[in-house]
């Protein structure tokens, strides 16, 4: 399994946009019937047919479990299991539309992003839409450095995370850390854009998830 944060290399100029950020779109999952309870699939982001990152998705009633390994460069890989709750709203013409509940801010969203350690919505990740056209690529690294300064860490995202500064509240620290990790993820993922655009591909491994619980 590829995992998130593994296999990325820095040093390429791209753009800090949502496309760099491992988007997971519930409409695609719904079309592929991944949301049906008991489904178990692997979702991959590929660049030129090479797997860039991958996660496992296990569907339960009203929730998905996203399962992957996460490693910030130079740090040991960590197994992550994140539960993301689902909501549904009725459609005007009948049926229901599904949504993610952002694990961080609890907003109802169609897309969550996997840059950084955990998935969350665009706003929580501080990401721009590509159509907004702003944000040159190293903007992500620069913004990460800004946060590093606040945290009293050595500049340069490749230096890895430091410790919580004395006197900083844990919640403040965690909020800064989430944003920092997101910027780092975007910055490193931009390397992939040199080779080709990131694309999500769906591969069904098993229909029965019982052996993975
Ligand atoms: Zn959010």
Write the layout of secondary structure elements.
Layout: E1 23-25, H1 26-31, E2 40-47, E3 50-60, E4 63-70, E5 78-90, E6 96-101, E7 108-109, E8 111-113, H2 122-125, H3 138-151, H4 170-195, E9 199-206
Antiparallel strand pairs: 1-8, 2-3, 2-9, 3-4, 4-5, 5-6, 6-7
Helix pairs in contact: 3-4
Bound molecules: zinc ion (ZN).
Zinc ion binds at residues 102, 104-105, 107, 120-121, 123-124.
Characterization of this structure:
A hairpin with a 2-residue loop joins strand 3 and strand 4 (63-70). The protein is globular and about 55 Å long. Helix 3 (138-151) runs antiparallel to helix 4. With 213 residues, the chain is of the alpha+beta class. The relative contact order is 0.25. It has helices spanning 26-31, 122-125, 138-151, 170-195; strands at 23-25, 40-47, 50-60, 63-70, 78-90, 96-101, 108-109, 111-113, 199-206. It has a 7-stranded antiparallel beta sheet with strand order 7-6-5-4-3-2-9. Strands 1-8 form a two-stranded antiparallel sheet. Bound molecules: zinc ion.
Q: Which small molecules are bound?
A: zinc ion
N-end to C-end Cα span: 17 Å
Q: Describe the main β-sheet briefly.
A: 7 strands, antiparallel
> Radius of gyration, Cα only, in angstroms?
17 Å
- The rough form would be described as globular
User: Which spans of ≥5 residues are poorly predicted at pLDDT below 50?
Assistant: 6-17, 130-136, 206-213
Structural class: alpha+beta
H-E string: EHEEEEEEEHHHE
Strand order of the largest sheet: 7-6-5-4-3-2-9
DSSP strand count: 9
Mean pLDDT across all amino acids: 77
Count of individual helical segments = 4
**Helicity, in percent?**
10-25%
Query: Which band does the percent of strand residues land in?
Result: 25-35%
């Amino acid at each position: 399994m590829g995992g998130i944060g593994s296999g990325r290399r820095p040093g390429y100029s791209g753009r800090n946009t949502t496309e760099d950020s491992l988007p997971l779109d519930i409409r695609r999952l719904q079309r592929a019937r991944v949301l049906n309870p008991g489904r178990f699939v692997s979702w991959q982001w590929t660049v030129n047919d090479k797997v860039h990152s991958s996660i496992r998705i296990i569907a339960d009633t009203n929730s998905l479990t996203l399962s992957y390994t996460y490693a910030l460069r130079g740090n040991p890989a960590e197994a992550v299991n994140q539960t993301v709750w689902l909501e549904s709203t009725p459609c005007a013409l009948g049926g229901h539309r599904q949504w993610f509940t952002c694990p961080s801010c609890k907003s109802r969203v169609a897309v969550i992003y996997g840059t950084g350690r955990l998935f969350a919505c665009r706003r929580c990740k501080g990401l721009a839409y590509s159509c907004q056209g702003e944000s040159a690529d190293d903007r992500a690294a620069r913004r990460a450095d800004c946060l590093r300064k606040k945290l009293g860490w050595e500049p340069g995202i490749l230096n890895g995370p430091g410790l919580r500064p004395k006197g900083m509240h844990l919640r403040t620290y965690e909020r800064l850390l989430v944003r920092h990790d997101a910027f780092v993820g975007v910055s490193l993922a931009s390397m992939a854009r040199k080779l080709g655009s990131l694309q999500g591909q769906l591969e069904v491994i098993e229909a029965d998830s019982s052996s993975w619980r």
